[in-house]
Write a structure and sequence with these properties.
There is one protein chain. The protein is 33% helix and 15% strand. By secondary structure, the protein is of the alpha+beta class. Strand 8 and strand 9 (204-205) form a beta hairpin. Helix 1 (5-15) packs across helix 4 (101-119). The site of one iron/sulfur cluster (SF4) has 12 residues, from helix 6 and helix 9.
Length: 308
């Protein structure tokens, strides 16, 4: 049976995805130019992988030769928990409170792909969740999921921006969505609130100054000139999303229990990190996004916060 938008939406939602959008698999021109400009300015900092596979980022048929469409999917991870702002603890970005989303979403994608293949045996695809040479956010915009906010995250009018994005490149054809207009308007709340001025212009984030990058992906020492600007963030930073009016008005708790805080990972005692050994780190953060920094990175972040 030929797949339709309705069939895919019904199957994706029955598996647990919140939003589903469809975009034609066209070449990306202006979007790749923007990426190249961003790279030329060095805003990727240590994320050199962003410089690779530009051809694939530009043209998804370099990944799946008979690509016709992109199916964009989202999964809400918001939960209502709050920080205590205890100075002896370091805050963790809300996406990392529970289980690693890659593990959850990969499984959901596998189930969805199998169901779609059962319906249409000619269905072929390649899926990504946040990794791989795909411009996830661009496709989420093109498929009508939402618009890119000035903080560079995707915003949906019903969910705000607390969601993960997955994309499926496929040889199936669908009806394609109109893009959602940009509803940021004259708001500049995220730009004004960013403590390190990392949002250097609308929609452009300089990773060299972004606490989220510096505490997670960064392998180097912390920039001393930002030492009094981290506002207690140990792993990631949510300030620009916390102040966004679309999140303040529309965030609803996720149905995914695995995204609710695990092992009190909302904020972590800095003394505990100082004393932690590899064994304890593995035991506490196995299956959590926090494991990405390794113990060395988490200790560096904790030390940086203590010295402020
Ligand atoms: S994550 Fe934090 S540091 Fe990065 S742009 Fe947003 S507010 Fe600024
Ligand atoms: S805080 Fe304002 S400018 Fe920033 S993303 Fe949200 S709506 Fe857009």
């Amino acid at each position: 049976m030929k797949l339709t938008n309705e069939i895919v939406i019904q199957k994706a939602k029955s598996i647990g995805f919140d939003l589903v959008g469809f975009a034609k698999a066209e070449k990306l021109a202006s979007e790749v130019e923007n990426l190249e400009d961003w790279l030329k300015l060095g805003y990727q900092s240590g994320m050199s992988y962003m410089e690779r596979n530009i051809d694939k980022r530009k043209d998804v048929s370099q990944i799946l030769p008979d690509a016709k469409s992109i199916i964009s999917l989202t999964l809400n991870y918001y939960t209502h928990h709050q920080y205590s702002n205890n100075k002896n603890k370091g805050k963790v970005s809300r996406y990392a409170w529970g289980k690693d989303y890659h593990l959850i979403i990969r499984e959901m994608l596998k189930n969805l792909e199998e169901e779609l293949c059962d319906i249409d045996p000619k269905f072929s695809c390649k899926s990504y969740v946040d990794t791989g040479p795909m411009m996830d956010k661009v496709w989420a915009v093109k498929s009508g999921i939402g618009w890119m906010g000035k903080h560079s995250n995707i915003i949906n009018r019903d969910y705000g921006s607390w969601f993960f994005i997955a994309n499926i490149i496929t040889n199936a054809e669908f009806d394609y969505a109109d893009q959602i207009p940009d509803f940021c308007g004259s708001c500049t709340a995220c730009i004004d609130a960013c403590p390190t001025d990392a949002i250097v212009s609308d929609y452009v984030v300089d990773s060299n100054k972004c606490i989220s990058y510096l505490t997670i992906e960064n392998k180097e020492d912390m920039p001393q000139e930002l030492s009094d600007k981290f506002d207690g963030w140990l792993f990631g930073c949510d300030i620009c999303q916390d102040v966004c009016p679309w999140n303040i008005k529309f965030s609803e708790p996720s149905f995914v229990q695995d995204f609710h805080p695990k092992n009190e990972n909302i904020e972590i005692d800095l003394n505990e990190i100082d004393k932690m050994d590899n064994e304890e780190f593995k035991e506490r953060f196995s299956g959590s996004p926090i494991s990405r920094t390794k113990l060395k990175g988490l200790k560096r972040n904790a030390k940086f916060l203590r010295e402020r």
